[in-house]
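Is this the right way to post structure tokens for a design question? Let me know if I should format differently. Anyway, here goes:
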């Protein structure tokens, strides 16, 4: 439904994760009987939660650990792991730095050039452990990095920027041909981020094997505050999922939609799937893992197109093992652990045997979902985080 916010100025209402709720189904299913697997780029993952390509979230060791749990972590090829022989030393410097010094320190650390031999070495580290290897870079670095990653044995390549389109104009810099990369890559390419039906459809038409959805909601992203850009995640996911369904009907090729950013707890994850996501990507939840390279902190990639200080870090609170965060048992009551268990329980309560059926569940507009009847819950700090 469209609204007018002034004379002849028509706008569309969009909805975020905190504004909707999932309606219980007409039947219920034992959570142990549901299937949470997702088909992505020729691989089957039992855990449809992808760890973001952030230096403080995914290291080669973290990617291997996630793969062993039948999940997926994406390694950032633009970060410290491809700039330094011993990236752990640099990460520890960032973790131990005073807040007032952190941004300047990260800027100095990221001035070190990316080394091609380290790109290949990190990929081989993951592959030699028998893990699925997914790696990521900004569009400008993709033509070079994708060739190195492919030759080293990478399975999936992610091209990611704050906003991606198929048509980019610049008098000073050349244009990255995303369609050519998809056709000549020799491996599946996931592209993001986008938030509209039109761009999602265009990315599918040029050969993307997956679409990342989300501009502005991420814990390490300030696009909405700094640039005024973004679309709330529920509306963005629904629109891009509609493009996926249209494209599938038109071509017979199914391109998964991955909601990326703004996800804090199990409820957010479940709502994203009901909105149409095939998988979700997030960083702050995985950054809490004791196995994560950031040890409680995470920071974004060095993106030259962002009008932000490079690498601002964010403390993400209570930690846990990857096992606890994904599969439990939960040691917190705020919905940030046993995320797959939460997803299974939600699927059971709406009567969905698999994720495709979960996409058919009903959403309602519910702006009071986080506050209605929560007076005593807030007073006791139960289910609200600590």
């Amino acid at each position: 439904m469209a609204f007018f916010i002034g004379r002849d100025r028509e706008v569309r209402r969009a909805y975020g994760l905190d504004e909707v709720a999932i309606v219980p189904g007409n039947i219920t299913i034992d959570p142990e009987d549901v299937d949470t697997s997702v088909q992505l780029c020729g691989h089957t993952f039992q855990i449809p939660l992808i760890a973001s390509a952030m230096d403080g979230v995914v290291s080669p060791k973290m990617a291997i650990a996630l793969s062993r749990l039948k999940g997926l972590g994406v390694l950032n090829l633009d970060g410290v792991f491809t700039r330094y022989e011993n990236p752990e030393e640099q990460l520890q410097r960032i973790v131990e730095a005073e807040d007032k010094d952190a941004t300047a320190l990260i800027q100095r650390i990221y001035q070190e050039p990316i080394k091609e031999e380290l790109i290949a070495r990190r990929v081989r580290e993951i592959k030699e452990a028998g893990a699925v290897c997914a790696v990521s870079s900004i569009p400008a670095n993709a033509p070079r990095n994708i060739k190195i990653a492919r030759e080293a044995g990478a399975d999936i390549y992610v091209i990611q920027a704050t906003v991606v389109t198929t048509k980019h104009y610049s008098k000073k810099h050349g244009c990255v041909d995303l369609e050519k990369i998809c056709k000549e890559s020799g491996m599946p390419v996931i592209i993001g981020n986008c938030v509209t039906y039109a761009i999602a459809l265009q990315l599918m038409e040029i050969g993307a094997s997956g679409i990342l959805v989300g501009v502005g909601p991420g814990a390490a992203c300030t696009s909405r505050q700094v640039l005024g850009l973004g679309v709330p995640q529920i509306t963005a996911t629904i629109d891009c999922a509609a493009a996926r369904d249209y494209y599938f009907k038109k071509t017979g090729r199914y391109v998964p939609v991955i909601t990326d950013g703004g996800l804090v707890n199990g409820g957010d994850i479940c709502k994203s799937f009901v909105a149409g996501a095939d998988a979700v990507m997030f960083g702050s939840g995985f950054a809490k893992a004791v196995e994560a390279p950031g040890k409680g902190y995470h920071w974004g990639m060095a993106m030259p197109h962002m009008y932000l200080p490079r690498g601002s870090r964010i403390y993400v609170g209570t930690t846990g093992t990857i096992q606890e965060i994904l599969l439990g048992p939960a040691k917190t009551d705020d919905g940030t652990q046993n995320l797959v268990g939460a997803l299974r329980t939600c699927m059971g309560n709406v009567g969905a045997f698999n994720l495709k059926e979960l996409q058919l569940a009903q959403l309602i507009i519910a702006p009071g979902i986080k506050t209605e009847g929560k007076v005593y819950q807030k007073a006791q700090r139960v289910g609200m985080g600590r």
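Format looks fine. Someone answered above. Worth noting: The domain at 16-380 is CATH 3.20.20.70 (TIM Barrel). The chain has one domain: 16-380.
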